[in-house]
Design goal:
This protein is mainly alpha-helical and 92 residues long. It has one domain. It is 75% helix and 0% strand. The protein has 5 helices and no strands. α1 packs antiparallel against α2 (31-50). The longest helix has 22 residues, at 2-23. The relative contact order is 0.16.
Length: 92
């Protein structure tokens, strides 16, 4: 069960960071996406904490201001995001 929650926590973090990366691309463009991703992340953190997982580091990441997204998004996700944005900007 703890392994499952740890995986959910990682996925929720990735979802939130991707939402932040997308949200930076335009003012108010992804406001609701960011809000929903943040709420989901908070919910999963609480669920993991109740199950006994150490969530201090990930809670601190959520609380930080001015996150440098390039350093926090997994490289494979960042590469895929960039690929999708290029495809959208320059359709074949």
């Amino acid at each position: 069960m703890k392994e499952f929650l740890a995986q959910r926590l990682d996925a929720a973090r990735d979802l939130y960071l991707l939402a932040l990366a997308l949200g930076e691309r335009g003012p108010h463009q992804f406001g609701r996406l960011l809000q929903e991703a943040r709420l989901h992340f908070i919910y999963v953190i609480e669920e993991a904490r109740v199950a006994g997982l150490d969530t201090i580091d990930i809670q601190n990441m959520l609380a930080r201001q001015g996150i440098d997204l390039v350093d926090t998004i997994r490289p494979d996700l960042l590469e895929r995001l960039n690929e999708m944005l290029r495809t959208h900007a320059y359709p074949r």
